[in-house]
Amino acid sequence: MERREAVAQRLVSGEWLAGHLDDPDLRIIEVSSSPDDAEYRQGHIPGALRWYWKDALWHATDREFATPEDMASRLGRIGIAPDTTIVVYGRPVQYGTYALWVLTMAGHQDVRLLDGGRKGWIAHGRLLSRDIPLNT
Asked: Which single residue of 33, 50, 73, 124 has CA 20 to 30 Å from 113?
């Protein structure tokens, strides 16, 4: 696969995601800049888990990325296996790209970024959900 194709596969459209919401091998994660989950509870992409970036993506005591072992454990606790496709988006948008980077560096094979994030999802008239997945 050419590098350009590999990069293109990392970025998914809202249309693609809407068509895959019921895929059992797909998990969606909203990565937030705030430890407060009020905005997430008001509405998020259906099925999306919520992560506060610092708790989910940083090492517990050192100012660095979580280790691959820590990330594998964190992902496993929320039902994400090594072969699960993960789609991330950030609130604000840069936290989604940060998550893409950290998860990729930790060795997860199929991590994708939602093009346009939450704002793009809403701008295209797609609905938000208040249902909170069990393993958030």
From this structure: 73
Decide if 51 is inside a domain: yes
According to DSSP, the residues that pair with 87 across neighbouring strands are 28, 112
Look at residue 136 and tell me if it is in a domain: no
* Residue 70 domain-assigned (yes or no): yes
Beta strands in 13-133 (DSSP E): 26-32, 49-52, 85-91, 111-114
pTM for the model: 0.89
Number of domains into which the chain is organized: 1
Sheet holding 11-12, edge to edge: 11-12, 111-114, 85-91, 26-32, 49-52
Q: What are phi and psi of 67, to 5 degrees?
A: -70, 160
Domain that holds residue 12: 3-123
d(CA 124, CA 41): 21
Give me the pLDDT at residue 115, please: 96
